[in-house]
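Sequence in, structure out. First:
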Amino acid sequence: MSPATSSKRATKLNPRKVVAVVYNQLCTFEYAVAVEVFGTGRKELPKPYLFKTVSIDPVPIKAQGGIQVQASTNLRQLNDAGTIVLPGWRDLSEKPPQRLLNALVKAHKNGARILSFCSGVFVLAASGLLDGKKATTHWRYTEELTRQYPQILVERDLLYVKEQSIMTAAGSAAAIDLSLFVVRQDFGAEVANALARRMVVPPHREGGQAQFIASPMAKPAKDSMSEILDWLRSNLDQEHTVESVAKHFHLSPRTLSRRFIKETGTSPHRWLLRERTFRAQQLLETSDHDVEHIASQCGFGSSQLLRFHFRRTLGTSPRAYRNTFRASATG
């Protein structure tokens, strides 16, 4: 029995309602990410989210950059929220108000999905909802998070971490990645990809990807990985090894592996698995091909191998995934 039906006092959850919690000294960028993804009503979304903002401080609150934000001050907005977003917390040494922590615990019991961006994880940590769970934050704050909350299993190098209905993201840009991951959960890979194109950001960076890439600055075209990545995406149905790809582009395997990790934050093998799984998601959503055919088109070789990686990555089977998003499209 779900939390929403297990108690007469429980409030019925609105799965499309997203509430961002704000406060003085608000991180403008992280709040803006929530607004852009969940509050703008982009046409790429089959069904718009119902976006609300609630403040724990008297309004208007003052955000970074001299911006003022108007919001409701009624924390009861969280009671029926399907998703709650916590932007970076203003002071790591300041405990969030108890009434906010109580409201978060109540919302979580009611089935809400809770996201923290950057140092917003300190709000979740103070509520106790992360005790015994994995979480991440900006790499500059991981030691402090571990010091204050040793009961949390801090993942120091990941972009974002999903622990059932609680999700934590690293630094500011990772808020975009986690938000698009949520859209992907709600509407599928095709919709998330279209929204990413609208936002002019990569369609998918997996949570296990490293936070920090050593050489983030753009390189001259002759050194860019884009040609290699585009070629691989166009030939996912073929078998690839580091050696075969390196030979095709007249590189040594060591050079290819080094550049892959430096520029994408992950290994060639993991990148290929991610892209193949993403392609399988798209085909499951948009075609009537059987799983065996999709496995072949995506380079998995067999439906068994596709099922294994699909379940390991997404926690569900290809058939269940297809049924879910076919139902979403017609519902």
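Second:
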Amino acid sequence: MSIALSRQSSPPLLVPNLRRVDSTTVARTELVQPSMCGQTSLLCGRIGDWTWDAVSALCGIQVLNARNQSGAPTYLSFYYYHIRGSSEFHLRTPGFGDLLHVTSSVFSLGSESVLTLHRIARTPVGHDPDPTLTETSVDPEEFYSSRNPDCLYVETFNRWITRSDGGGNTNLLRSSPVDFRHAHLPTLPRKYSPRPTCHMARSQHTFLPDRSDEYRPFGEPLRLKYPVDVSRDLNGVGLLYFATYFAIVDWSLLQFWRALGRTDAAFLNRVVLDQKLCFLGNADLNTVIAVDVQGFTRASDPTEQCADVVLLDADTSRALAVCTLRFADAGGVP
């Protein structure tokens, strides 16, 4: 679990460039800066900020300063992150100066959890924004069944947690803030609940259904070691930053790619059509992360390739994250 932290309290305030679409949805326009494009982790980190902004604006609480009943800080941690793209618009599509229109709808999952659906659209140069993409809420049916191929969609499932009395990053407890308002939020239809999906990731270390039959391994399984880099991977309070998990996944996939004899240029040309990541734990300083990578092809569609990337504490084998990616390649070599 990765965490947004703050050290002082303040009244909940809307971010200046947010606008309210309705009582459960906010929208914003963002100019793509160098700090939010290129590497997967950069845009994922920014989208995470947009989740926190949406919850702060709609749930009567400043997420970064939330406290529980006993007065201890409580944090809106990322538990599940699902990205859905297309060949027209995926995580590596935004470039310097692009104008993005972000719509974020928030759903209740009870007093300890919240789910946010983001729709990210672009306005071509010389065109006006499409109001059906910038001024309407994001419906679960749209996300799961009727996506616009010209948009990028992201689902985040967050849970309120706090540190235990012993401190550290490996024993985090569920704990809701006192002022968190969620009764007005719509509930997610049961068929779209992320909980069964996360349970499969936790218990089976994959998001692929019927992996033994429908999905067939390709390439040799790869185990890597990744020492946590304290100069780059931690946030300001010493926790493994949630976007770092995406960076580790990409680094591991690159090593797998090279082991297959593929080029770095082909890796950069890949198109990630779907990526799911379940955050199962954080890590203390000096942790060495073991990473297991395995590729798969789909029996019913051999052109579709997937990869499972599992992060573990190398000393204890405690699972830290499970990620499954479905990808293709813009140049014809997946």
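Remark: Confidence is low (pLDDT under 50) at residues 1-13.
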